[in-house]
Amino acid sequence: MLREISLLCLTLVLGGSIAVAADDWPQFRGPTGQGISDATGVPAEWSPTRNVAWKTEIPGRGWSSPVLSAGKLYLTTSVGAKRGPITLHALCLDASDGKIVWDAEVFQPDDALAAQMHGKNSLASPTPIVTADRVYVHFGHLGTAALDLSGKIIWRQTGIKYQPVHGNGGSPVLVGDTLIFTCDGKTAPFVAALDARTGSIKWKTPRDNLGVKKHFSFCTPLAIVVDGISQVITPGSGFVAAYDPYTGREIWQARYGEGYSVVPRPVYSHGLLFISSGFDSPVVYAVNPTGAIGDVTDSHVIWTHRKGGPCTPSMLAVGDELYFVSDMGIATCVDAKTGAVHWTHRLNGTFSASPVFAEGRIYLQSEAGVGIVIRADKVFEQLAENDLGERSLASYAVADNTLFIRTEHHLWKIQSGTTGR
After folding, report:
1. Is the pTM of this model over 0.70?
2. For residue 48, is the peptide bond before it cis, meaning its omega torsion is within 30 degrees of 0?
3. Is there a contact between 389 and 369 (Cβ–Cβ < 8 Å)?
4. Nearest C-alpha neighbor of 28 from the set 222, 190, 285, 242
5. pLDDT by residue (tens digit) across 43-57?
6. What SS3 class is residue 145?
7. Looking at residues 77-105, what average pLDDT do you find?
8. What is the distance between the alpha carbons of residues 182 and 188, in angstroms, rounded to a whole number?
9. CB of 300 closer than 8 Å to CB of 255
10. Of all residues in the chain, what percent are helix, strand and coil, respectively (each to 5)?
């Protein structure tokens, strides 16, 4: 019952927009958007032949993370040759057996636009959002769409234009009937909002980062409530800012110099926002958003940490600790309130996926497809290392007794007490 109450409270905070049941994972990083799961019985060990309920081949290529609602999984993919034609798809799978329920073609982008992508990225990297009656899919500068849960297109939006660098990355956030995402391209970056009911543009707010040499970033916004007021936190190149989700008005900003290509989604805990400033030398910042108005760089940055910050994976706040892993595999645990370091440890591999927390454990997925499980504690303890043998950049979805893991060619259901098939 407590699980249902806590998730209901989250839904009310976000304007009742996302239907959240105890076993749902409806957006990037789950119900809270911060990688925290209340699931029980989550497996800590697996392999291609152990604790695998099913493995389904996913057509095309994409790094969007799976989302889960009412027993169905949703993700996106791009199908076609590198030199076109390419089509962008939304997929629905049955979570019980892994069978594809429907495959909807959403866009057929212009070949020249589709070609503007980093080799590590994909055309289908942003993660969908699923609600009680819709799934929203986002392909950055290539378009955004809403579908009903049978795969029928409700609306498409291709009117928001910008020149990307390395392709798409950031996922949207849904606040009430407003779908918000960043458009931090090569020049003139901005944040945009769509009416989730119709797909029409609600607002576009320019990013004031003229002092930064490289404007592009890929961050997924996070919706929070501070002193009863909704804010959408959106790190970008050179600064993090909070916006009014309904008008697009900037509420406050904190600057961090030449940080660019920012990817990690913010984390909010203990009244502090935790962000990483991106390439080339990532710095972890703790910012107090309470009473923040205008430029609060000098007044509201509580602490910083300059070693082992992530460029790509998001962070985790669990209890009084903040956990993060650098792209090169340096895992760190610090005191969330002060930034004091409890431990650092080098893990095997490189990392892009964002970690998740369940049952006192932290789950990390390396780019080689190795799931590393550590204890959430002030003392480092690795519990397991689980190799699926296939490249992986997507983040997990979590449910009772289950992990859903996307690798380069497959979606896996990892479940305790099952064998690979």
Report:
1. yes
2. no
3. yes
4. 222
5. 999 999 999 999 999
6. strand
7. 91
8. 12
9. no
10. 5, 45, 50
Output the six-digit token pair for 148. 């009903």
Is beta strand 294-295 parallel, antiparallel or unpaired with respect to 250-255?
Answer: parallel
d(CA 90, CA 390): 22
Angle at 164 between CA 163 and CA 168, to 5 degrees: 145
Sheet strands side by side (includes 173-175): 173-175, 178-183, 190-195, 201-206
Q: In the sheet that 397-399 helps form, which strands lie side by side, from edge to edge?
A: 50-57, 410-419, 402-406, 397-399
For position 101, which CATH number holds? 2.130.10.10
75 contacts 103 by C-beta, under 8 angstroms: no
| Sheet of 144-148, strand order | 129-130, 134-138, 144-148, 153-157
**Do 349 and 390 meet the contact criterion of CB atoms below 8 Å apart?**
no
d(C-alpha 180, C-alpha 126), whole Å? 13
Q: Into how many domains does the chain fold? A: 1
- Residues near 144 by beta carbon (within 8 Å), at least 6 away in sequence: 136, 137, 138, 156, 157, 160, 172, 179, 181, 194, 199
The residue segments making up the domain with residue 406 are 2-419
pLDDT digits (tens, 9 = 90+) for 146-185: 999 999 999 999 999 998 898 888 999 999 999 999 999 9
